[in-house]
Amino acid sequence: MLLILFGFGMFTLGGIMLFKPMAFANGISQFSNKSWFHSFEITSRFIVGLLFIWQSKHSSYPLLFLVLGMVLCFTSIFLVLIGSSQHKRFAILTAKIGKWFRPIGMFSLLTGSVIMYLGFLG
């Protein structure tokens, strides 16, 4: 179920990037201005990463779960190390690449679909 939810999240965000790239860019800018933005990003990634690692032994795709979990946990630790001001700066820079959101969105839609498919198979 965790894999299906993760894939669905990727699929949904990919669809927004593909069909409404400027709305996605504006959403990044608005979200990065919230006082809790940095803490939320760290905490949510770390918790989901730990869930993937914890469930890896019990899944049909243990290596996939373990790698996804480790990437998410590493990203959380990296965000702690760079600090909130650099994280916000990066988010604002990311929002400015709006023209690239369509191809990134297409990749995210495909990847999210594959992850959901694997979740339904397992």
Written description of the protein model:
With about 120 residues, this protein is mainly α. The chain has helices at about 1-20, 20-30, 35-55, 60-95, 100-120. Helix 1 (about 1-20) runs antiparallel to helix 5 (about 100-120). The longest helix has about 35 residues, at about 60-95. The radius of gyration is 15 Å and the shape is flat. The relative contact order is 0.25.
Compact summary:
The chain has helices at 2-19, 21-32, 37-56, 62-95, 101-121.
Highlighted features:
single chain; 122 residues; mainly alpha
What's the arrangement of secondary structure elements?
Elements: H1 2-19, H2 21-32, H3 37-56, H4 62-95, H5 101-121
Helix pairs in contact: 1-2, 1-5, 2-4, 3-4
| Portion in beta strands | under 5%
- Cα shape: flat
Q: Biggest sheet, in brief?
A: none
Rg, rounded, reads 15 Å
Number of β-strand runs: 0
Tally of helical runs = 5
Order of helices and strands: HHHHH
Distance between the termini: 9 Å
Proportion in helices: over 70%
Average pLDDT = 93
Low-confidence stretches: none
Class inferred from helices and paired strands:
mainly alpha
